[in-house]
Amino acid sequence: MDGTGLGLVLHEKALGKVFQVWCLHIPVYDRTPFEELVEYVEETVKMRHASSPNKPIYLVGDSFGGCLALAVAARNPKIDLVLILANPATSFGRTPLQPLLPLLESLPDEFHVTVPYLLSFIMGDPMKMAMVNIDSMLPPRQIIQHLSDNLTAFLVHLSGVADIIPKETLLWKLKLLRSASSYSNSRLHAVNAEVLMLASGKDNMLPSANEAQRLASSLRNCKVRYFKDNGHAILLEDGINLLSIIKGTSKYRHSKRHDYVMDFLPPSMSEFKKAVQDFRWYINFTGSVMLSTMENGKIVRGLAGVPCEGPVLLVGYHMLMGLEVIPLVEEYLRQKKILLRGIAHPTLFTQLIESETNESSIFDMLRLYGATPVTASNFFKLLATKSHVLLYPGGAREALHRKGEEYKVIWPDQPEFIRMAARFGATIVPFGVVGEDDIAQLVLDYDDLKKIPILSDQIRRDNELAARMGVTVRRDMTGEVANQTLYLPGILPKVPGRFYYLFGKPIHTKGRQDLLKDREKARELYLHIKYEVQNSVNYLLKKREEDPYRSVIDRTTYRAFSATFDDVPTFDY
Q1: Beta strand pairing status for 289-293 and 299-301?
Q2: Listed residue (422, 383, 348) closest to 261, CA to CA
Q3: From which residue to which does the signal peptide run (predicted)?
Q4: Where are the domains of the chain?
Q5: What predicted TM-score, i.e. pTM, was given to this entire model?
Q6: Chain segment 87-126, per-residue pLDDT in tens
Q7: How confident is the model at residue 482 (pLDDT cuts 50, 70, 90)?
Q8: Cα distance between residue 436 and residue 441, in whole Å
Q9: Cis peptide preceding 311, ω within 30 of 0
């Protein structure tokens, strides 16, 4: 509403690395009507589209800007637009501040200086704004000092806002908001653009949470991310990274369609630090031990036995619910400075896994870290770009195994990945992992759930919906691996034990033309890799009994007196 583009300040640097960033500026004393502002933005959009007709144009609309973005999209349905709407003012007609608006209009000029201070508490959380750029890992005393300095500076800036937005300008802006809301709402049916809406739960200016639901049902292609603890000025608050949100919701693309391989942007250092901070408790609780096998067959602590030169294909056992993925990806990136691209079930990339609240979830984080839907095309592209790829042949059937199937390798009969790996000369590294039974107990598996009518019906409906959406994997296969019914098992947490990973001796396929021509040779190698994975699992199950620090209690005691979690010893190998 201020027209300065202030919401861009915290995001310009990150966005500027992947986008050419333009910002609309409306001078303080400008009185351009809303429709003319729409035409002004539209002119720029058409100019950029003419110069790059095959590239999408992103319009980030913050509050009033959300109405502008929607209006431009409605008038230009044939231009490829992606709208990012942060608490759009389309709900201005239902603002809880309506009773106060006449008071603002009649407020004497000498009292207008108080308006910025009132608006600051309506627009957002001053504490969240003041926490921006303060490292949460600092000692408490330093955090308090930085917070105090930022709050003091914040109040000083507020005293100048009355000069930036004088009373006449404020009244004009309110009039502009009314016309903007009315104009954009009347044209929602004409919007063809891809839309991502960011809605705040503590928006004291607009009913943004309810508006998100309305827009999601009114627009053709709208995804919502809900931030329950943020205020109206969400782009100015701590903990919000606009580029991370765009990447985590798979909205970043170069052309008409999002390509999970070619459009992928690796996580930045700040994104990596945030992920480590968010999941540090889990990584500490599981206390992962990573072992790898050198070319001479020697087992070593760490990942030195895994080659650095790609393409590399890690093929292994999938624990219950994929519990092993987060520590593995984090440690791989930390030790080898290489991002592991996971091949994942297509359901993770559909609306089926969106929570009812539409809050950011672990699935956004997985997409941010390069998870890719399992398709032959994506597998081809990953190997062609010499990526390090994480593949679980057992898929959902192995990760959602039944009681008594813990650590049983459940793979298809066909050697699915061998010929593709050989085509690109990929190095295959089989690995085993154990530890699921040390942190959780499976109490309700699929066989149990289908005996409960309500839950059985829900599972059936969910899987039928997935099939209608085209989310099917291995439908032409037979046997156990073809039984990939998706469901949420019932599990109970335990006092954490420890995760153990063993990466086997690398298997080189470069120059192995026989694997491409001879299906029997490919099958022999496939069965050998499957045997190596099961053998690694069995080895770890036996050796973990010798680990004096298998329990989190023992590791915590050791850490208190000796070292960090990363240095906690394990069994002899």
Answers
A1: antiparallel
A2: 383
A3: none
A4: 4-247, 281-438+489-559
A5: 0.86
A6: 999 999 888 766 666 666 665 655 545 555 456 555 655 5
A7: low
A8: 8
A9: yes
